[in-house]
Amino acid sequence: MALKYEIIKKSGKSRLGKLYTKHGIVNTPAFMPVGTCGTVKAMMPESVAATGAEILLGNTYHLMLRPGADLVQKMGGLHKFMNWDKPILTDSGGFQVMSLTGLRKLSEDGVTFSSHVDGSKHFLSPEKSMEIQYKLDSNITMALDECTPFPATYEQAKKSMEMSMRWARRSRDAFIDRDGYGIFGIQQGSVFEDLRRFSAEKLSEIGFDGYAIGGLAVGEGQEAMFKVLDYAPGMLPEDKPRYLMGVGRPDDIVGAVLRGVDMFDCVMPTRSGRTAQAFTAYGPVNIRNARHREDPRPLEAECDCPLCKNYSRAYIHHLQKCNEVLAVMLLTWHNIRYYQRLTAGLRQAIAEDRLPEFCDEFYAKQAQGDIAEI
RNA sequence: GGAGGGGUGGCAGAGCGGUCAAAUGCAACGGACUGUAAAUCCGUCGACUUCGGUCUACGAAAGUUCAAAUCUUUCCCCCUCCA
Fold first, then answer.
1. A242 and A328 within one domain
2. CA of A136, C1' of B74: distance in angstroms
3. Which residues of A carry out catalysis?
4. What is the pTM of this model?
C-alpha cells in the first residue's frame, strides 16, 4: 500500500484517522492551508507549522508556469524548495479548468491554458499533470479532473463527470506508485445523486489511495452542498480518506465532518486574512469595521496565536486601515490557527465521544455572534 | 507699492452658460470572498424624501440671463514674481 490510512475511531458518520506519508502523519479530520505558488501567502513555513497544520496544498498549474516542475525537481522537490518538510498535496490543475474558463481550451486529450501570467500556451493532460506532480515530489497527487461549474444541467454534469472519470483512469495509469505517496481520485456529478454514484463506483473500480469530492462549493449554496454530502461520502470506499475539495467556511467543515469527510482545503482563511476578515468562535469579524477602532480586547481571548496573544483589536484595525503587511500576516496566522483549532477540536471530540456536544457549542457560539461578546 | 495666478464636496483635483448635487483619485462607511488570475472586488458617500422628487450648495455680496460653479462688478482671503 502506497499510502496507509488508519481509522482510529468513529462517531456517527465522522471518523478520526491517521494518514501516513513519507513526510509524516496527517491526523484527520484535517485542514490543509493553501500554498498555491509554493507559499502560504504572508506566512513563513515555520509559522504555518506552528499553527498545527500537518499538510499543505500546492498547485500543479501555478508551479508549472512558475518556476516550472523541472526546476523544482532540480532544487530537490517542493518540500525542500519551500522549506516545508511535512506532507504536501497538490491539486492537479482541475480547478483551473473551471476558474480559468476564458483562458483555456478543453478537449478529450487535455487542456491548453493561456497562461494568466504572460499568455503563453501550456498543455496539461492527465499524464502531464501526473508527471508534474511527480517532479514536485507531492505526497498526494490529485487526478486531473474538470471541476464542473454550477449550475450545470444534468446532461452537462454527466458529460463533464464522464470525462473526468476517463481522465481519472488515465491519471491512475500514469501515476508511479511509491511508498509514502499516493493518488486521489475525484468524484464529480454536480448535485445529481445518480451521477455522484456512478462517479464513485468508477473511481472505486480504478482504485485510489483516497477519494475527493469535487465540484462543490462552487455557487450551489450550503444547503445544496449538504444535500449532496448527505450521500456522497458514503458512496466512497469506507477505508480510505475522503477529501472535500475547496471547502470551506468553518460551519461547512463541521457539517461535512458530521457527514463523513476527513480532509479539507480552502483559501478562505488565507484570502480572508488579506481582506480583513477574521474567523472566531463567535463567527467572522471584519476587523476593518469602525467598531474596533478603540477596542482594547484581543480578537479572541481563548486563541493562542500571536495576534490574539500580543495585540488589541484596535491595533489590528489600525494596521489594516494603514494597509500594513503586518495586518495581513497576523490575520492570516490567526485564521489558519483558527482552522487548526477547529479541526483539532473535532478530532478530540471524536476521540472523547463528545462530538454532538462539541457541535452544539460550536453552533451556539457561531449563532451568538461577536457582538454578544462585548 | 507693481505684475500675475488662484479660492469647487473630509482632502487633492476636473469642470468654465443649460445634459452639474458637480468627473476622477484618496479618505470615510458597509458588504463580498469556498481545490487562489485576489494584500482583491463591489456598493454608499450634501440634507430631507410617500424614492417620483424637494431643498441648500462651488470664498462673500450684488448683477446679467429663461438658465450661473461657469459671465460682470465690488469685497475678503491665499500663492508666485518684481521693487
1. no
2. 81
3. 91, 265
4. 0.94
